[in-house]
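Posting for a labmate who doesn't have an account.
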Amino acid sequence: MALLVAGISGLLAYGFTSVFLYGGPLQALGLLTIWRDRLGLAFWPALVLVAMVLAIFPTKFSARFGMPRVLLPAVFVVISMGFSALLVGSYAANQRDGIVEKFEPDVEIRSSVFASFRNAPHEFQFFLHGAALKDCKPYAWSYRQMAFYELPPNVAVNVLPTSWIKKCNIQRTR
């Protein structure tokens, strides 16, 4: 019975943490499996492993100070998912910052990496991770490519700030 309760506590912790950090109950699992190629960073899965190893220590600490054993899987899941998001998110943001600096856009906007975690897997919508104007050419940020790509004008007019569109006279193409 205790094993069943421990398993359920771990699954519930996974579900709630995945919704909180990634926007849906299956998003975290999807990022590790079917959407694994959507983050063009080398070695990011290794950071997930590091986070899981690091989560062992606070979980043991919780057990030592009286946390019921049936809740330890939940503690481990929440901490390891939190550490994973923090480590991978920090790594991605750091890499993006360096690439943006080298790109030298005239103006740019960025969504937080954590907003991207929550919104990126949704195929039915276009979430802008970041955007830039350079010499009045509109660009969008791709975490898959870890680079900017040029936005077609008919897309740019729908997602860029109005001030950019007016400044550069970006118009829809037919």
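Reply:
Got it, the structure tokens are right above this. The longest strand covers residues 137-142.
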